[in-house]
Amino acid sequence: MLNKEMILSIETSCDETSIAVLKNGKELLANVVSSQINKHKEFGGVMPELASRLHLENIMYCIDAALKEANIDYKDITLIVYTKGPGLIGALHVGIQAAKAISVAHNIPLLGVDHMKGHIYSSRYISDFKFPLLTLVVSGGHSELVLMESEYKFKLLGETKDDAVGECYDKVARVLGLEYPGGPIIDKLAHEGENKYNLPYPKVEGKYDFSFSGLKTAVLNLVNNMKQKGEEFKSEDVATSFQKRVVEILTDKVILALDEYKVNQVLLAGGVSANKELRETIVNRVKEKDSNIEVVLPPLWCCTDNAAMTAMAGFYSDEEESSIDDGVNPSLELND
Questions:
Q1: I need a surface site. Which of 33, 65, 81, 335 has the fewest CB within 10 A?
Q2: What would the pLDDT profile of 37-86 be if each residue is shown by its tens digit?
Q3: Is 128 exposed, middle or buried (0-12, 13-18, 19+ CB in 10 A)?
Q4: CA–CA separation, 292 and 199 (whole Å)
Q5: CATH homologous superfamily of domain 6-121+302-316?
């Protein structure tokens, strides 16, 4: 049985270097995040090689800062939790090598955690889980609908069959000439425009699966055609029409699942869970469906990648200690 009294958590799956310290699964003593967004902006997206180099530069500074903030030393740590996947392979390697180095130097056991399970468990900082529950996980790389019937048991009901919703936000932002990351900018513009364009509602075979590639392509074609014809348009209106459709697709799947599964909670998770319209719509639609179901929204500070969520997932994990010989898995799936 792993001793989880004092967890040091390491998260380096993409473009945030983050270190957290969690005590007894209750007290978050530190959550240091070093974001690389400003470095990647000029490229319009995350550059994997650059991300890896920046993780290498920042990780020890972040570890030292987290230990100082938590007012502990390596001797106080009982478990090291690290993100084993999914994510960028080079970025993940920086995190696991740091975890292994500390483990060997200070004789501390290791535990690899699924990044997406971390996103789901981010809501544990504000609410206990009341099983069974349904989780909508939406981020730059993932769009998944997950059922949890008990602690740390995950059943994948549906997922995107092409692009993740966060990826589509970035690509739509790019065609509109907006900065990276596109999600927050489009969310802001969407509250200033009109729903003028009838964008397609992609159909998929799986009952709970998603598809966003066709919607993305429709927006790109719409904007390019208007530009070629010299027609004036407002980015705000395109953003509004795009976001309305995205939120409709996501929340429709949640409501559809509630017809089949009796749950006590609906959770929102992932970077796109910070989207204002998505948060408001899912609360309202679930309430209309069944006022007895509680909707749990992660705190905004915990929507983007951070080690606090990985630490919480590690605390509740029922997996065995990871071996020093274990590697990372950039394509890790929820049920692996």
A1: 335
A2: 899 988 888 999 999 999 999 999 999 999 999 999 999 999 999 999 99
A3: exposed
A4: 33
A5: ATPase, nucleotide binding domain (3.30.420.40)
Farthest CA pair distance, the chain: 67
Give which of 257, 220, 242, 48 is closest to 144, Cα–Cα: 257
Q: E strand or H helix at 287, and its extent?
A: helix 276-289
Regarding pTM above 0.85, the answer is yes
Tell which residue, 120, 220, 229, has the closest CA to residue 173: 220
Any residues with CB less than 8 A from the CB of 158 and at least 6 apart, and which? 144, 145, 206, 207, 208, 209, 210, 253
Tell me the CA distances in angstroms from 294 to 129, 153, 158, 179, 287, one per residue in order: 10, 19, 21, 35, 8
**Secondary structure (DSSP) of 105-156:** HHT--EEEEEHHHHHHHGGGGT----SSEEEEEE-SS-EEEEEEEETTEEEE
Q: Is the peptide bond before 48 cis (omega within 30 degrees of 0)?
A: no
